[in-house]
């Protein structure tokens, strides 16, 4: 094709976005790597590039790794980030898969509307929605007081319930915010599935449950994996929801990193923590890339 | 599906929708509450009056609007270029790196993006935090999302249109602006809207890149929400929900009408041709 063959134009068209990505993405990541093996300058914030004795990992990575091996704050933070991200992905799948399946099997003319009402919360500010959960779960809020009252009347609990600031309220918030990321790729795979597979399975005598688990689920593997990764990866670094709904005692790595930068002004350590996060999400990311194309366009 | 299954399917869907909308409805209901933001004390619009008198929130809104509009424009331009390159050039040196970089912002935790941008801007480019830094950060994120939306449109658009224009003697640039661009215009608009919302909603990248006096709305909300539930936030939330719903529902009705009209036109054209 001529448009893609004229070579001077071609290199300009490729060169512009390439330059943008190199300067805005690759350079910052390389620089992040460099800062992560640098010394912190006393007096806050500033840094000397590289250690003089060349023992690059000594200042930042070795303490982090030691901490991870010996069980300190960072281990707690990384483990709870991975744990809550995995749990969020799991619940999104359990709740979202049947939903996406029923949506894909609903009447064709109904589907755009059903989809619109899944997408609508997605367009409303995430912070406002998380704040709404805070209002909902407030100790003096109607939901908590009425459930508390009911349980107390039946003698199941002694003290009023306390929901806000617990792992439950944080998980609720994470599932709430991330479930559209699960539903959309699943819906996109399931709605493209040929209904004749289901009919064939039924004709051969399989029960609907059997068809679901032996035909539908395996055929939607690409969508499941894309959905799991799309929820899991951002959850690992989640910064806002743990702060608003998780309380002070749930330590997640995104917050530890931000504290290290903003409060302790330790750029090298914050960078080393960021590099470790990248290493944690790189493998899931590669799995995602492998399956994303199969799951089709869902954004 | 038999009757029992249909019943199960319907109740599952109703429950998920209830899950998605319950917090939002509670927020709207309590925005009309008197006094405390979580405990029903009677109807009042005082939290809306308080909202109108909170300059911090209005300032944040203006800051966010400026940033979101500019980021959306830049993101659509860069996103179009990225999508064009990914979709129209099958092979070139460094394509693997290019497509890898194009997708990275979608999957990288925002704290990592924010920190790495901040370090480069401050140390290498000697920039002070503020509008330019936030806009660049949001454009990095937004261009990645925009390119996904626009790429989808490119992939269903046959190259034949552009080729025909070139065969008829158009210069490549003219072919792009006169033929390709109008054909992908709708995806540019939806990409722009998507980036606008992403920028308007972003708190993490802004938190890292903001400077003195530049505080986008989400950062104002986060600071306030950290201190607990507040009546102004309920009112603000209700306003945001209202605006988004009206825009989105009106937009989708308009799109469906347009689709119908287009199908009717295509059908009419066929009738005339045969």
Automatic annotation (TrEMBL), chain A:
Pfam families the record matches: BPD_transp_1
Alphabetical list of CDD domains matching this protein: TM_PBP2
Subcellular location: Cell membrane
Membrane spanning residue stretches: 12-32, 82-102, 114-133, 168-190, 211-233, 269-288
Topology in the lipid bilayer: Multi-pass membrane protein
Domain ABC transmembrane type-1 intervals: 78-288
Keywords from the UniProt entry: Cell membrane, Membrane, Transmembrane, Transmembrane helix, Transport
Gene Ontology annotations of biological process type: transmembrane transport
Chief localisation class: membrane
GO CC aspect terms: plasma membrane
Family: Belongs to the binding-protein-dependent transport system permease family. CysTW subfamily.
The protein, known as: Putrescine transport system permease protein PotH
Name of encoding gene: potH
From TrEMBL, chain B:
SUPFAM superfamilies: MetI-like
UniProt-listed GO biological process terms: transmembrane transport
Family matches, as PROSITE patterns: ABC_TM1 (PS50928)
Domain ABC transmembrane type-1 residue range list: 61-251
Record's subcellular location: Cell membrane
GO cellular component: plasma membrane
Keywords: Cell membrane, Membrane, Transmembrane, Transmembrane helix, Transport
Its membrane topology: Multi-pass membrane protein
Domain of life: Bacteria
Membrane-crossing residue ranges in chain numbering: 12-32, 61-86, 106-125, 131-154, 175-200, 232-254
A family per Pfam: BPD_transp_1
Assigned protein family: Belongs to the binding-protein-dependent transport system permease family. CysTW subfamily.
Protein name: Inner membrane ABC transporter permease protein YdcV
Organism this protein belongs to: Ephemeroptericola cinctiostellae
Originating gene: ydcV
């Amino acid at each position: 094709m001529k448009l893609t063959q004229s070579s001077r134009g071609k290199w300009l068209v490729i060169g512009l976005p390439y330059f943008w990505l190199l300067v805005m993405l690759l350079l910052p990541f390389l620089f992040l790597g460099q800062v992560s093996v640098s010394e912190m300058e006393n007096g806050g914030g500033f840094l000397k590039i590289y250690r003089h004795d060349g023992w690059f990992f000594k200042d930042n990575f070795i303490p982090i790794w030691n901490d991870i091996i010996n069980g300190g704050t960072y281990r707690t933070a990384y483990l709870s980030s991975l744990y809550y991200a995995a749990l969020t992905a799991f619940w999104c799948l359990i709740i979202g898969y049947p939903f996406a399946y029923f949506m894909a099997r609903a009447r064709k003319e109904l589907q755009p509307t059903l989809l619109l009402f899944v997408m609508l919360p997605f367009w409303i500010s995430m912070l406002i929605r998380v704040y709404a959960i805070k209002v909902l779960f407030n100790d003096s809020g109607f939901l908590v007081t009425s459930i508390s009252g009911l349980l107390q009347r039946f003698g199941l609990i002694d003290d009023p319930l306390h929901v806000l600031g617990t792992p439950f309220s944080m998980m609720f918030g994470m599932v709430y915010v991330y479930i559209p990321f699960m539903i959309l790729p699943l819906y996109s795979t399931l709605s493209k599935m040929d209904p004749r597979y289901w009919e064939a399975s039924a004709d051969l005598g399989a029960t609907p449950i059997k068809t679901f688990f032996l035909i539908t689920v395996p055929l939607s593997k690409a969508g499941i994996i894309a959905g799991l990764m799309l929820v899991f990866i951002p959850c690992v670094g989640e910064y806002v929801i743990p702060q608003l709904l998780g309380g002070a005692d749930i330590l997640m790595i995104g917050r530890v990193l931000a504290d290290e930068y903003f409060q302790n002004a330790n750029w090298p350590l914050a960078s080393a923590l960021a590099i470790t996060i990248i290493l944690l999400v790189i493998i899931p990311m590669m799995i995602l890339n492998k399956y994303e194309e199969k799951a089709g366009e869902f954004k | 599906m038999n009757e029992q299954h249909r019943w199960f399917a319907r109740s599952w869907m109703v429950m998920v929708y209830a899950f998605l909308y319950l917090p939002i409805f509670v927020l709207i209901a309590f925005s009309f509450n008197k006094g405390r933001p979580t405990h029903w004390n009677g109807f009042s619009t005082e939290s809306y009056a308080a909202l109108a008198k909170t300059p911090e929130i209005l300032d944040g809104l203006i800051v966010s609007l400026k940033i979101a509009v500019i980021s959306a424009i830049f993101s659509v331009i860069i996103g179009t270029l990225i999508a064009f390159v990914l979709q129209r050039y099958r092979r070139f040196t460094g394509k693997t790196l290019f497509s890898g970089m194009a997708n990275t912002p979608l999957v990288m935790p925002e704290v990592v993006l924010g920190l790495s941008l901040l370090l480069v801007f401050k140390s290498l480019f000697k920039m002070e935090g503020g509008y330019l830094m936030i806009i660049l950060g949001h454009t990095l994120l937004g261009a990645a999302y925009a390119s996904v939306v626009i790429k989808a449109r490119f992939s269903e658009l046959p190259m034949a249109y552009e080729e025909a224009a070139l065969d008829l003697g158009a210069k490549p640039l003219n072919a792009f602006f006169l033929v390709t661009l109008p054909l992908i215009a709708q995806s540019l608009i939806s990409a722009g809207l998507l980036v606008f919302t992403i920028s308007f909603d972003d708190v993490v990248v802004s938190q890292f890149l903001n400077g003195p006096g530049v505080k986008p709305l989400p950062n104002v909300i986060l600071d306030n929400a950290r201190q607990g539930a507040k009546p102004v936030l309920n009112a603000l939330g209700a306003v945001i929900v209202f605006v988004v719903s009206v825009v989105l529902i009106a937009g989708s009705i308009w799109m469906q009408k347009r689709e119908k009209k287009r199908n009717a036109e295509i059908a009419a054209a066929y009738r005339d041709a045969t």
